[in-house]
Write a structure and sequence with these properties.
The chain is an all-alpha fold. It has helices at residues 3-79, 82-90, 93-142. Helix content is 95%, strand content 0%. The chain is elongated, with a radius of gyration of 53 Å. Residues 107-142 form a coiled coil. Keywords: Coiled coil.
Length: 143
């Protein structure tokens, strides 16, 4: 074998090793890319699911907002009553308070009378007991 032929065999082997090495590197990179694509597709699916859920929640929230608005309109229509406004304008709080004050004074007077009667009955009971005790002592002194 000639020197030239010998070098070319080594060159072919060297090129072959490098190509095999590149092939394995390419296969490894391809596997990484596949795993990354799979993860991305999973994330895309999950994002789609979340998007549908968000739209569902948005619909529920919009329905609730519409219910609140209709309830607010109904309350506003109930409060828009000229007859109640007229009654409120005619209502005199001072007169009503005077009625309450006089009623409270009357209740205070009744309570004072009841207390006085209770005190009088307690005094009468004490006087009766004192008189009985005095009579009992007088009877014991006589005997």
């Amino acid at each position: 074998m000639s020197q030239k032929n010998f070098k070319s065999n080594f060159a072919v082997e060297d090129v072959s090793k490098r190509q095999i090495s590149l092939l394995f590197d390419n296969l490894e990179q391809t596997d990484k890319v596949r795993r990354c694509e799979k993860r991305i597709k999973g994330l895309q699916r999950q994002t789609g699911i979340w998007g549908r859920e968000v739209y569902g929640v948005d619909e529920i929230i919009n329905d609730r907002r519409n219910e609140i608005r209709s309830l607010d309109r109904w309350i506003a229509s109930m409060l828009n009553r000229p007859d109640i406004d007229q009654l409120n304008s005619e209502f005199s709080g001072a007169n009503q308070c005077q009625k309450w004050a006089s009623s409270l004074r009357y209740m205070d007077e009744i309570q004072m009378e009841v207390k006085q009667r209770q005190i009088e009955s307690i005094r009468a009971e004490e006087e009766r007991k004192a008189k009985e005790l005095a009579d009992l002592e007088a009877a014991q002194l006589k005997s």
